[in-house]
Amino acid sequence: MDELIRLSNATLGSVPEQVARPRYDRSALTPGIVHIGVGNFHRAHQAWYLHRLMQEGKALDWAIIGAGVRPYDADMRDKLLSQDCLTALIELNPSATSAEIVGSMTGYLPIEPDNAPLIAKMADPAIRIVALTVTEGGYYIDPVSNAFDARHLDIVHDAARPDTPRTAFGAIAAALRHRRDNDAGPLTLLSCDNLLGNGRILRQTVVGLARLSDPALADWIETRCSFPNSMVDCIVPATGPREIALAREFGIEDRAPVSHEAFRQWVLEDDFCAGRPDWEQAGATFTNDVHAYEMMKLRMLNAGHQVIANAGEILSLGTIADCMAHPLVSGLFFKVLNAEIVPHVAPVPGMTPAAYADLIHGRFANPAILDTTRRVAFDGSSRHTGFVLPVIRDALAAGTPVEGLALVEALWARMCAGTREDGTEIEPNDPNWDQLNRAAWDARVRPHAWLEQHQVYGDLADNRVLAGAFDRWLKRIWSSGCEPALRDYLNPPQSAVQSLG
Predict the structure, then answer these.
(1) Helix, strand, coil shares of the chain as percentages rounded to 5?
(2) Nearest Cα residue to 488 out of 332, 313, 325
(3) Where in this chain does the record put each Mannitol dehydrogenase C-terminal domain (predicted)?
């Protein structure tokens, strides 16, 4: 192999010809967006859409400034600054692999405990959009009621010290205070996380926090700023040695390359109070009905991930593609989605729920995407409450089956016991792991103990249909194993069919 090209502005001209590179002059870019939470997904998704516009000579005044609010963000900052915030994106198809260099991000703010650099940049009139990917569990909401959690210690801190906040939302409120006081104008706040009504949730958190210390500011934010709902979709694995090696195969030395599938989707409300890039020219969809797209994606793709990930962990299946190659786990996916989730999802233009289930299957089964089961199973306490339990509630209200969904919850309870069936340890994989682990072991003796976690299940613990099915499945998993339980669900014994009838 020829000498590797260390990624930087100075070396872009030396990047191998098979790697697409920015055609625009990066030195001419000016920032218009601050993005908080510069993980792999942002760089493969939102940054890519903007890059596509810049490749056509458009949106050159909308460059992205990266930001983080937690100490661990400093590692990504160091890596990206060392290569002028360029990223090698590697698209993985079963039949081909390609790479391109994305250059729409031009800086990364210092990460400080009081968030002063972030506040100052967001207060800059040149910044017109602040976007976030901080995970669905990062919005300080009660998982059962979806209300703003004003009692969280981070929120209590920021309300008492609004000029030196520790959260992204406190920093946003502080910046908006500066903008109001200096007539710098409002901002569009854009959530890019997997939450139903993510714009509404973001508004609830920012306005709710501001109201605790400055009610007049809260009113100004409520009336002047915009919070469009959006739906984002692209499977983006975590970066490890394999991804770094893939970049090197293209002749690129990138400290933080990103691999991704070919599929991307971005659906947004056109509610941007201070202007926006023409993202629709790069393939984004603007609509007044983001909700329908959100419901389809969150209840089928995101819930579908949870349907298979816990079984995969229990059975030591390392990737989502491995899960889909396992006949019982993929059978669980097909039956739960088509029999118990599809009936509660409406079609969107050009896509029926049944066709979307087939599309997801192909994406999950892509062997080139080494998306780890552990990554997908992470933070189940947010993902089950956000993706799976709403479907269970709708199914119970409609009187439609929940057997498979109850089995999915039992598999999660079994996974949280912290051991696989081959005896290996499942390391903590949830912000609430200790609590989940205790409940999982209590539930081995008394299954209902799992459903009694009110912060997860709320009043679902009182539903006899769900509780009965859950108890039965968890006992079956512990007594006989995961695979026999999956077989029973896919091919129920005649006695069980008669009892259900």
Answers:
(1) 50, 10, 35
(2) 332
(3) 289-478
Q: Can you tell me the distance from the alpha carbon of 46 to that of 391, in angstroms, rounded to the nearest whole number?
A: 28
Helix (H) or strand (E) holding 97: strand 97-102
Distance CA(488)–CA(501), nearest Å, equals 16
Count of all residues that appear for the chain in the document: 501
129 and 196, same domain (yes or no): yes
Same-domain check for residues 196 and 271: yes
**Helical packing angle, 303-314 and 353-364, nearest 10°:** 40
- 381 and 271 assigned to the same domain: no
Sheet holding 87-92, edge to edge: 97-102, 87-92, 258-260
Q: Which domain holds residue 17?
A: 5-287
All residues at 6 or more sequence positions from 291 whose CB lies less than 8 Å from its CB, including other chains: 196, 197, 229
Helix (H), strand (E), coil (C) string for 280-321: HHHCCEECCCHHHHHHHHHHHHHHHHHHHHHHHHHCCCCEHH
Q: Is 399 helix (H, G, I), strand (E, B) or coil?
A: coil
CA 432 to chain centre: 18
Q: Which of 259, 287, 315 is the last residue of a domain?
A: 287
In this structure, are residues 45 and 141 in contact, taking their beta carbons and an 8 Å threshold? Answer: no
Segment 71-104, tens digit of pLDDT? 989 999 999 999 999 999 999 988 889 999 999 9
Percent of the chain with pLDDT over 90: 94
Q: Which residues fall within 8 angstroms of residue 288, CB to CB, at 6 or more apart?
A: 269, 270
**Structure confidence by residue, pLDDT tens digits, 228-250:** 999 999 999 999 999 999 999 99
Q: Supply 238's token pair.
A: 């975590």
| 303 burial type by CB count under 10 A (0-12 exposed, 13-18 middle, 19+ buried) | buried
Residues 21-48, mean pLDDT to the nearest whole number = 97
Residues 308 and 215 in one domain: no
CATH code: domain of residue 357? 1.10.1040.10
CA distances 88 to 63, 97, 371, 464, Å, are: 17, 13, 18, 52
Per-residue confidence (pLDDT) for residue 95, from 0 to 100: 82
- Asked if 135 and 201 count as a contact pair (C-beta separation under 8 A), the reply is no
| Whether residues 353 and 277 fall in one domain | no
251 shares its domain with 335 = no
Chain CA centroid to CA 300, Å: 14
